[in-house]
């Protein structure tokens, strides 16, 4: 695909620096890209410069975490200014919260005899590129593998970091209403991310979409990487029902995992994209 509206760099939990990500996207034939790191815009200046160098149309993006109905969900924002005060205030608060979370993960691992996890996760993070953001669970997972506590990344999550495990530290995310207000104040275009990542009933999924529309949302991410085709079909039905535009993206984090940049299932032809390639909202 020549447009990809969902990917991550070392500014959050990806393994490629923003520049490396842009260069890889260009190699994959992507013409329009949105860098949507988790809760930070730290990588966007570097990505903008790289995009200019290779002729990619870069859309400023972010994937914001928030709480709806007692569950952490993710909202994608696009096309805002880098100096927008609402975005910067929100990301600063999230930045502090992520550091507290990382420190708590390390403290819990230490209580089980795994010392220096924060320093180790930071060292892993540093090998991927300089970032002011707190190390995330994937960095802790790589540390656990490196130190021989687990065999691989999957075991790290299965034993220590996954849902319900000791390293599964919940952060105090902002509310859904506050996050939607932040993005609306920034005049961002807003898409509801990967609705099937949440363990919701059909009724609860529909209620979230209804609340999203009422709060000023613009689009539904109907395709996230190589998700099952039947899920794409269900999300497409919701987009039609609520008259929402749609987004799609690889949700790329690292090579050979889940989906390559620019690679995802096709979007049904009758749906209206939030951004049309090759021209896109800046």
Structure characterization notes:
The chain is an alpha/beta fold and 282 residues long. The protein has two domains: 3-85 and 175-249, TIM Barrel; 92-161, DNA polymerase, domain 1. The protein has helices at residues 18-27, 44-54, 85-111, 117-128, 137-146, 153-161, 176-185, 202-214, 229-241; strands at 3-4, 32-35, 57-68, 71-78, 189-192, 219-224, 245-249. Helix 4 packs across helix 5 (137-146) and helix 5 packs across helix 6. The radius of gyration is 18 Å and the shape is globular.
CATH class of the largest domain: Alpha Beta
Sequence of secondary-structure elements? EHEHEEHHHHHEHEHE
* Mean of all residue-level pLDDT scores: 93
The proportion of residues in beta strands is 5-15%
Gyration radius, in Å: 18 Å
| Estimated structural class | alpha/beta
Distance between the termini: 19 Å
- How many structural domains does the protein architecture include? 2
Question: In short, what is this structure?
Answer:
Helices cover 41% and strands 15% of the residues.
Characteristics of this structure?
seven-stranded mixed β-sheet, globular, DNA polymerase, domain 1, alpha/beta, 282 residues, TIM Barrel
Please describe the topology of this protein.
Elements: E1 3-4, H1 18-27, E2 32-35, H2 44-54, E3 57-68, E4 71-78, H3 85-111, H4 117-128, H5 137-146, H6 153-161, H7 176-185, E5 189-192, H8 202-214, E6 219-224, H9 229-241, E7 245-249
Helix pairs in contact: 1-2, 4-5, 5-6
